Amino acid sequence: MSAPGQVDERPAASRSGQAGAVPPTLAFLWRLITYSPWRYLLAAAGWAVFHLWPLLPGVLGKLLFDVLEGRAAPGLTVWTVVAIVVAGGLARCTAIVGATAAWAGWYLRARGLVQRNLLDRVFRLPGAQAMPKTVGESLSTVRDDSDAIALMGGWGFDMLSGITFAVGGLAILLSVDVRTTVIVMVPLAVVLALAQLARARAYRVREQSREATARVTGTIGEIVTAVRAIKAADKREEVVDRLRADNRVRKGAMIRDRVQSLAIDSVFNSTASLGAGLVLLVAGARMRSGEFTTGDFVLFATYLMQVAEYTYFMGYLVRTYQQSGVSFVRAAELLQGARPMTLVDHHPLHLKAEPPPPAPVPRAEPLRELEVRSLTHVFPGTTRGVRDVSLTIKPGTVTVVTGEVGSGKTTLLRAVLGLYAPQGGEIRWNGERVEDPGDFMVPPRVAYTPQTPVLLSGSVRENVLLGLPDDGRVERAVHTAVLAPDLARLDAGLDTEIGVRGVRLSGGQVQRTAAARMFAREPALLVMDDLSSALDVETEQELWRRIFATSTTCLAVSHRPAVLERADQVLLLKDGRVIAAGPLARLLETSADMRLHYRTPPTEE
Ligand SMILES: Nc1ncnc2c1ncn2[C@@H]1O[C@H](COP(=O)(O)OP(=O)(O)OP(=O)(O)O)[C@@H](O)[C@H]1O
After folding, report:
1. Spacing, Cα 331 to ligand 1 middle (Å)
2. In angstroms, rounded to a whole number, what is the distance separating the alpha carbons of residues 447 and 413?
3. Is the pTM of this model over 0.90?
4. Does residue 387's CB lie within 6 angstroms of at least one atom of ligand 1?
5. What is the pLDDT of residues 454-499, one digit of tens each?
6. 384 in ligand 1 pocket by Cβ < 6 Å?
7. Which residues contact 86 (CB under 8 A, 6 or more apart)?
């Protein structure tokens, strides 16, 4: 139940970042507890028995020696003691089994809930904002911080039981002999306080090793996503060297971490012998005089270390609690502006049965007109982006955005789609103002294939459907995307596993699989960013021919003459502004920039 050390020494306030004020850790904890309260209560009761059990052997030991020495109350025999031991042992075993099962159930739900809420938020955010941290850090938050948060659940009952034990044990010791208790406890308390201080330092080392691990995870993530680029640039050696360097740092941090923990533990363990020696020294003389019985000695020897151990354990729990608070802050940063308590909002997890199927996608209202007026998005801290762009798209038409590298084509598409928050202007769909393009410009109204599409590990079919019903649309989509001949050559056709992010496919196949995913949505508007950049001329021509044959309204970035010629309107961008707009033939007559661009488009340079 107690969390392994994961800590950031910075105060929570300095880490709150853009997540805003994070409520007290106890508020999160309470919300998590009430997610599955009966499991939590059962676990708490079982672990209380577990923690309080060590109070019994001391008392029983004393009782046994008192019975043997004839000092016990009349009627108590050795067998009474044996019967209490057996009954207590059985009760403890039952409590541990029940508590473990209840705890596992609660912990898995609590962790699952935090992970579900984190991912839910990330998936709801527009693409460009989804991850404010590196891949390694984000993964580590979803995996490790959610774990630390759930483990903190055990903190509540560990703490309560621990305090009860320490106070109860100390009270028993004081009732037996105040002087011995004080003389023996003071040096032990000093050793434990020193150990606790050393432990605080050890947490910093632990954090360094955690950061080093996140870096290695991040590097591996980057390598996996850039396999093709690494091979193409012949940078294998350099990449492996970097991974090796990251691993070396991690190894050093891990070794330091381990050595420190072992050193502290060994100091702590030797205090057990120190305690027993002290009891002997202090109580020896008094035992000879009969003031201190063998039973008292057994009680002291048993409790002293346990009380001390629990006092030490309390310090550990306080640290764990603080660490979990840091984990909450880190997780809240991933929420990017949502209420921090969103992390622990109650939602079903469907752990025992399949989740209900997604609601059928309603057919979109046919597009009558898309109007973009004075749309502006400038990247914060720069002068780059798009400014004051207006365009009108009529149903069944093809609009092509073109312009030199960096002129703002992708930014324009993403601003229209709401993937970049518009900073000015408006979008109207069939005359109605679109308040939140990020939520509105999605399937089945709009589907989009970005310049660098992202596929997921899984089969081609899964990548095309992405949750849609398998009702024959894959075949239609694959046909439009000119992917069928490629599938015929793959070992399992549509069911071929494509590897992480589609590494087993060529660049052109990745592009067309992503295009098929877009066609399968059967949207009212297709938005494509340089769709055919990785295709050979024949495949590309066939792809555009099939897209145009569907008569779906298109908004595309392209430099290809064939596409520009087919366009009902062309928008030429320069430095984020539209400098010419209209059918290609007219622009070639009226715009010198267009003539230059048409003759030497960037992709053909
Ligand atoms: N996230 C970002 N932050 C800051 N500047 C950006 C960001 N994304 C793009 N830019 C800059 O904004 C400008 C427009 O970029 P954009 O990607 O829209 O150009 P593009 O015309 O699509 O280029 P390409 O033909 O290479 O795809 C460029 O100068 C680019 O460097």
Report:
1. 30
2. 12
3. no
4. no
5. 898 889 999 999 888 888 889 999 999 999 999 888 888 889 888 7
6. yes
7. none
What secondary structure, in 3-state letters, does 464-518 show? HHCCCCCCCHHHHHHHHCCCHHHHHHCCCHHHCECCHHHCCCCHHHHHHHHHHHH
Taking the domains of the chain in order of start, what are their residue ranges? 12-177+292-344, 203-289, 370-604
**Cα 80 to chain center, whole Å?**
55
pLDDT digits (tens, 9 = 90+) for 371-386: 999 999 999 888 899 9
Q: How far is the CA of 409 from the centre of ligand 1 (A)?
A: 8
Q: Which residue has the tokens 């699952």?
A: 112
Residue 384 CA: nearest ligand 1 atom is: 12
Q: Which ligand 1 atom lies nearest to the CA of residue 408?
A: 18
Name the architecture of domain 370-604.
Answer: 3-Layer(aba) Sandwich (3.40)
Ligand 1 probe mutation, 129, 386, 409, 452, most atoms within 8 A of CB:
409
Counting from 1 in the atom list of ligand 1, the atom nearest the Cα of 414 is 18
Query: What's the CA-to-centroid distance between 377 and ligand 1, angstroms?
Result: 11
Please state, in angstroms and rounded to a whole number, the distance separating the CA atoms of residues 587 and 492. 48
Closest ligand 1 atom, CA of 381?
Answer: 4
pLDDT of 418 strictly over 80: yes
Fold for domain 12-177+292-344? Answer: ABC transporter transmembrane region fold (1.20.1560)
